Fold these 2 entries.
Entry 1:
Amino acid sequence: MQNRSAQTILILNLRYILLIRADIITMSGGEIFQLEQDEELRIEVDCPKDKTVSVELKSGMAEIFGTELVQNTPYEFPSGAKFSVFTYHGCQVMVRGRSEISPYTSKETPMITYANVHAGLEELRQAAENAGPAAAANQTSGGPAGGDGASADVSGKGPVVLVVGPTDVGKSTLCRLLLNYAVRMGRRPLYVDLDVGQV
Ligand SMILES: Nc1ncnc2c1ncn2[C@@H]1O[C@H](COP(=O)(O)OP(=O)(O)OP(=O)(O)O)[C@@H](O)[C@H]1O
Ligand SMILES: [Mg+2]
């Protein structure tokens, strides 16, 4: 008998394509960006080493790589940071601090794909959980593993995913995002970064 496990390979090759100037309100101390539904604000912090750029959610809901932002709370980012603030429903974000590259919004975002990957993984986890006790019972009785094998892992193990792609395209970030979404579902994932090159 062969154990089947759900295996997925995600190939990342993100290249940022579409640049759209956002609705910007300039205020003393910063700029407020109005983001529409499913839009992201990209920020590349290219300021002096001793300075930071701060991001503050003023209204609506938004997240950075799966971590929800708390309204009216400034988040500081050091020189060299590169990230996007994404919103599913629209929001206003204030950015303080100067960078060589001005923040810009884009509708061209991998976030919907990422959210779908999360949903797919969660479905496989639930199927594995449901198959788990049945599979264990079958193994004890010596019978074949249960389940129809369509999507559930008959051994009761969760999905296994291999994320591959060229250097610096967002592989680790995707893993972090999936981790954050899993936590938001009430799961307790463990993240081990064994890439010594990142230290
Ligand atoms: N969707 C995204 N939007 C904006 N910035 C992103 C996005 N995904 C990743 N980044 C940024 O791109 C940079 C590279 O991301 P990351 O470290 O995840 O890439 P990687 O593929 O794991 O790189 P490496 O090959 O070095 O391990 C980071 O600064 C990260 O914050
Ligand atoms: Mg990495």
Note: The chain has a mean pLDDT of 82.
Entry 2:
Amino acid sequence: MIRESTLEVLGDFPCFPQEVVRLEQSQARTPIAEAVGAGPAHRAFIEALPAEWQADAAVEIFSRLLYLKEGWYPLGPHYHFDWGGQTAIDGKRVETLMVLLGGGSQTEFILGPLEHLEPEAEQKGGLPLRTPALQSSMRRMGARPSWDEQVEAGLRACALRRWHLEPQKLVLFDNWTLHRACPASTAGWRVLIRAIRGLANREVVDHGPAASFAGAAPRRGGGVYGNLGRFTTCRNGFIPVTDEERARYEPYRDGGRT
Ligand SMILES: [Fe+2]
């Protein structure tokens, strides 16, 4: 099955200084009304969302603040799809509207047609009907071919193109957009703020009267949903003890900025 890996640049976003970025609070799939209090950058991002996203009570904000030194990755640098394989509402794609603040690490996107496993074949664990080149690649590896191989071949053939996420750009993509993390070129704070629309794997939890943002409709039962997604992010309360741990932890401490 051929699926198009796409990304659209919707426009520019204001630049926030590092002193502001480092104080933003990461959001783990929280409702808009809650995430609006996560810092001035989050608020500006939410205010920049299209009106229909702001009014959609199912939209979630998912963000992560990181300090990276030169050469550090924000996460493992493997090609992947956000929410790939997860059920979207009404069978639609899961859309992500995103902005990067702090330009040290610029996510790499691969855009163009990509060949995916047929869902039935994937479920049965068998080899689907593929192009001869891809079939031989799969046999060689004894499993699903790495995206790296298809990407390299597609780039060589000019069927695919590579695009790096620029800071302060509002972008829109979906759960069939291939991308991977890149190492930071400079040290600094970085926050990636995303609004996600269309995810179905959450539960409705009644927290009492729901706060709303820009007229967002209250969810069924008058409640809002809790942060019950499969993917979350948190502070783990790590306390460095040894000299080596303290040295590694230093960049994360107040006053440890470089
Ligand atoms: Fe991702």
Note: The pocket of fe (ii) ion is lined by residues 80, 82, 179 (CB under 6 Å).
